[in-house]
Please model this.
Amino acid sequence: MQEVVMSSYEVVVAGATGLVGQILIRVLQERNFPVARLWPLASERSGNRTVTFKNQSLQVLPLSDFDFSQKHFVFFCVEPKISEKFVPKAMKAGCIAIDNSSAFRRKEQIPIVVPEVNAHKLGPETRLIANPNCSTAQLVVAIYPLHQLFGLRRVVVSTYQSVSGSGVTGLEQLEAERQNREPESRAYSRAIFNNCLAQIGNFAPNGLCQEEQKMIFETRKILELPDLIIAPTTVRIPIPYCHSEAVLVEFKREVSLEDAKHALSQMENVIFYDTEEDGTFPMPLEAKDRDEVFVGRLRKVEKWPNALQFWVVADNLRKGAASNAVQIAEKMIEKGFV
Model:
């Protein structure tokens, strides 16, 4: 395997051939992350595949017998069961593990971090950080500055989530159905082309699907508001990339629209559309391949002085996954915790 000499950190990407893993490697390069050597890992079924980093072709190594010693960061872009098996091995070897799966998010001692919102949860002893669910990440970035101003009381959110949230299988099913042929494998039991599916994950006895449960738990944990009322409806829609959200927030105090606009326009990594011109609002086509969270359609609610509505769009594979993970590592370096 060829060395990629850049600066000072040995970086491992587990799941390097998957959708998120491929984009994470691209983000490391785009953001000039200080990589001394990059180690791409995947399962044995990836065979003799290679990935490209800094114009060099790197052999993908098997995760199963990889030696994590003397590595600094390990980005896990794998299924929860794989993370559960290999994250402890990486930590035992002294690595900082940043996990994109849901495996550790519900463990009380493991922080779920969105750097713009709760980077204070990182510390010199932090060795495992959970990346949030994609739909949660963009939501908390948008509502956090408003919470600081007016105090959150409840959040009602409806999501419009792209098929790439289901991985390659979701993209392939959409494309197969668009071409009027049978998919080789299915991410969804129902057709997704020309359709909307108001279910992401299995239903619980309380009527919530898994995605909705994730949004509730993770938002409360990230914002440290365990009693926050959150009512999500998550919907899969037939577009390939980016998630959108229609958000209604009730606050503890009466809102000022101008103060809300100012707060969003000043929020780190938010692109705020402060205009009422026709057709000027965030769209998935604009958010694709971007790390920012796009917010627009901000408005007050008639006869409800302490409520606001708005529209949020972000690239689910970047801010919702890969870019957020890299930002966490950047913050660990910035704070001197590595």
Notes: The chain has a mean pLDDT of 96. The two ends are 25 Å apart (CA to CA).
